[in-house]
Amino acid sequence: MNGPPTADDFFLSGLDIPRSTLNPLGSNVTHITMDLIPGLNTLNIFLAHLDFAPNGMNPPHTHPRATEVLQVLKGTIYAGFVTSNPNRHFTKILN
To answer: Which residues are in the Cupin type-1 domain (predicted)?
Structure first.
């Protein structure tokens, strides 16, 4: 960003449009970077928008020393995570 931030630096249109989930995982991940939302610059935040087909999945993955927040806008998702030291498994159904 050059100059002071404006409201437009924190806005991205089109996330309400479902992306294709016609693939073996039945999901689609749209990475939202500071190129798309300039206001993310220097905030140390990474955003992603996920679309799922019925029974679609997001493969197990890691985020070392990072936090993940999920917000379900439509439907139901079975989410979980494993802590470290000690390894504990937590799951929850999100609506």
So the answer is: 14-93
Q: In this structure, are strands 27-32 and 47-52 parallel, antiparallel, or unpaired? A: antiparallel
Non-local (6+) Cβ contacts of 46 within 8 A are: 31, 32, 33, 40, 66
| CA quadruple 27, 75, 72, 39: dihedral, nearest 10 | 60
* Fold of the domain built from segment(s) 7-94: Jelly Rolls (2.60.120)
What is the residue extent of each domain of the chain? 7-94
From CA 53, how far away is CA 72, in angstroms rounded?
14
Q: Which backbone phi and psi does 92 adopt, to 5 degrees?
A: -160, 145
pLDDT digit string, tens, across residues 9-43: 999 999 889 999 999 999 999 999 999 999 998 88
